[in-house]
């Protein structure tokens, strides 16, 4: 988990990865999103933001 002073974001998989580009499937899996409507809390840093940008059409992002 992130430390108390670090910002976090909630990412939810809202669209299925079936039929998606294999690279996007692996990116969603690396974010911890394996099932539809699963939500994970991740640290708000550049690497996570880049991964979210790759699968932005599959996910919903909220401030945590």
Overall number of strands: 3
- Which strand order do you get reading across the main beta sheet? 2-1-3
Count the domains: 1
Q: What's the SSE pattern?
A: EHEHE
- The CATH topology corresponds to Ribosomal Protein L30, Chain: A
Structural class: alpha+beta
**Count of separate DSSP helical elements:** 2
By CATH, the superfamily comes out as: Ribosomal protein L30/L7
How would you describe this structure to a colleague?
- It is a single chain.
- The protein is of the alpha+beta class and 64 residues long.
- The chain has 2 helices and 3 strands; from the N terminus they run βαβαβ.
- It has helices at residues 22-30, 46-54; strands at residues 8-13, 39-43, 59-63.
- A 3-stranded antiparallel sheet has the order 2-1-3, with no helix packed on it.
- The longest helix has 9 residues, at 22-30.
- It is globular and about 40 Å long.
- The two termini are 12 Å apart.
- The model has no long low-confidence stretch (mean pLDDT 94).
What labels would you give this structure?
Ribosomal Protein L30, Chain: A, 3 strands, 28% helix, 25% strand
Layout of helices and strands, plus pairs?
Elements: E1 8-13, H1 22-30, E2 39-43, H2 46-54, E3 59-63
Antiparallel strand pairs: 1-2, 1-3
Give a concise summary.
The protein has 64 residues and is an alpha+beta fold.
